[in-house]
From TrEMBL:
Protein name: Probable tRNA sulfurtransferase
Residues that coordinate or bind ATP: M183, L184, H208, F209, R265, G287, Q296
Subcellular location: Cytoplasm
Catalysed reaction equations from the record: [ThiI sulfur-carrier protein]-S-sulfanyl-L-cysteine + a uridine in tRNA + 2 reduced [2Fe-2S]-[ferredoxin] + ATP + H(+) = [ThiI sulfur-carrier protein]-L-cysteine + a 4-thiouridine in tRNA + 2 oxidized [2Fe-2S]-[ferredoxin] + AMP + diphosphate; [ThiS sulfur-carrier protein]-C-terminal Gly-Gly-AMP + S-sulfanyl-L-cysteinyl-[cysteine desulfurase] + AH2 = [ThiS sulfur-carrier protein]-C-terminal-Gly-aminoethanethioate + L-cysteinyl-[cysteine desulfurase] + A + AMP + 2 H(+)
Source organism (scientific name): Lactobacillus kimbladii
Similarity remark: Belongs to the ThiI family.
Xref: SUPFAM superfamilies: Adenine nucleotide alpha hydrolases-like, THUMP domain-like
UniProt-listed HAMAP family: ThiI
Amino acid sequence: MKYTEIMVRYGELSTKGKNRKDFIGRLAGNVTKVLREFPQVEIHPRHDRMHIVLNDAPFEEVDQRLKKVFGIQTYSPTIKVEKTLAEIEKTALALMKETFKKGMTFKVNTKRSDHQFLYDTNELNKMVGDYLFSHMDDLKVEMKHPDIVLRIEVRKDAVYISNQLLHGAGGMPVGTGGRAVMMLSGGIDSPVASYLALKRGVDIDMVHFYSPPYTTEKALNKAKELTGILANYAGKINFIAVPFAEIQETIKEKIPEGYLMTVQRRFMLQLADKIRAKRRGLAIFNGESVGQVASQTLESMAAINDVTTTPVIRPVATMDKTEIIKLAEEIGTFDLSIQPFEDCCTIFAPPRPKTKPKIEKAREFENRLDVDGLIERALAGIQVTSIYPNDKFLADKAEEDASLL
């Protein structure tokens, strides 16, 4: 069937009271961004639901993008027909024949906002049901838990018919939860933390530290491409690359081995906080999971957090690695995350880092350095890239093979 529009139902927005209008407006903007490849599509946000008029845009392709937009609870592809019984019956039959399989149960569910329409809901339910029984075999009605619900909505302008209820991503529209920065590495955890932040409506800028010549351009592009996957859930994400080599070289030269990692992470957090302030963010997110590595013990977190009073939010803090990997696979970041391009978190890694560093010691060692100068020079070298859904930065294997010929 050729669907004419998509009817979108809101999720948690129904609980937002006076802010509902703003939330719906933000959702409409996010939908517009993810469907920018289809300029013919019209988006009409209304109080109770959103109508997306396809205007011949392919539903299958629109569906792939729409299912990743946070703030959508469910949606249905629908067909708009004239307000005649013959058109309703003909379209209902075509939809049922396309989706019905032997052994399924169904029911007809009519809603009527146009009370001047010739038939009321019960009459239309019965007439359409009888028509389907007379033109199809093996039909069985089930009123409580049917496999298929044929939905008929009679409105002032037309009748809308659907028989699919597709589940959206849920959560809150990105942007309704405020702005923040995300400390994105090239690993498994921080992309999952990014996804969870976006799901709660937080509009995040990615902050990624890179250290040429110790890290390669491929490592940087890997982080950008991870951002491209996550942009499916946001429409667009700003990627902020922060040069970190000078800071790491200086720490390596002047800080005792056991505190290399602690002081390095303190610098990262200070830089992330200054970028957050400049971009008017309210919090810092990262991918830390309690006890997973030396820098993620509670003692280490306390010693690192000492450099800021800004809220540092860790969405995967209490998840184990298996849970994080499962979610990474579901959102499509896992295969890219495990590609072996070293990032700056792994270079200069000490063999025996302190797992219970002292805040006073960390401050003492850090004060040996020109902290302000190092941070100022790193901030002067940042590069900001706007990244859209599925933007590619790594050459695929075929392209790499061709370049070697």
